[in-house]
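Hey, quick one: can you model this chain's 3D structure?
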Amino acid sequence: MVERVLEIGGYAAGYCGRLFARAGADVVRIQMDSVGPAWASDEAMSAFLHGGKRLLSSADGQLIAELANAADILIVEAQTANALSAMDFDGFSTPVKLAMTPFGRTGPKCNWNASGNVMLAMGGYTHLMGDPDRAPLSLPGHYLEFQTAALGYTAINACRMAGQHKVIDLGMFETLLALSQFTSVRWQCAGEQRERHGSDFWYVVPSNLFVCADGWVYLNIVPSFWDPLTVFLERPELLLDSRFLTNDLRMENREALHAIVGEILAPLSKAEIFARAQACRIPLGVVQSFAEVLDDPHLQARSFFAHSNARDVQPWRIPENPYCINGERRTVGLGPITSEQVPLWRA
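Sure thing. Here's the predicted structure for all 347 residues.
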């Protein structure tokens, strides 16, 4: 049986609905007059979020109620708890209902307005990003909305698989805190408050960006990779260097170690460094341009991107599901199935 999903809201609702559409559900999206500024064009966001959905532009409360009551799943994103109540969210009889709001439906902040970048600051993320002697940075794109949507999708499926009728109250602010496991563990277990350190991960050394002959690479050397790193660097004597015997010592002497690594890698090409890292089995990534990511041979071999030649300038490439089932990746097309007359489902 194809699940019927009604989606109302902005980018969080759009991404949650996207996951259902790509899983084969019949998704109807109620088009909003405004969902706030996008990090990409409206055309690009529509292609990414609404492929395979049916769109309905309507503010008819009775029609929306009929669709909600006949749906299996209701996804609603609202700016405040009061805004959610105003649309009679609690009155809908949908078996599983998801409410996504900035601060949840209860508590002293439930009716605060907040954008994604504001909540990233409140959740401590902005405090951690950027160089220590410069202003903090914020995450680009719709990170918060999409992470919230993914958790909502998981919770909905848990309810559906258990055969339970539930109302899911998901706060975006709490989503951020649920994802900050390393930050909270450092504080709770070690009494350490994380700070901004640029590209340096700080707690395991060396874990940083390093420039090379034709670009950049990133090393992430936890203690178990220290021995193979010395082989990778062709400097086995570092194993006996009293400054670097433990990770704590390497943290104390990070500038000296970074200088050694940087001097060795600077004249090498990305290809040479990557080949050496593969041979020594250490965690290293070559920093790719966005064009290189789009043309990544691994992603191409796994048919990760959907392609369309509909555009005059350049074809669209939209990410598909990040998983394959039985060796296949389900695609739904790049654009919504626009329909002003969406047939009412039967309850």
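One thing worth noting: Residues 2 and 24 are 7 Å apart (CA to CA).
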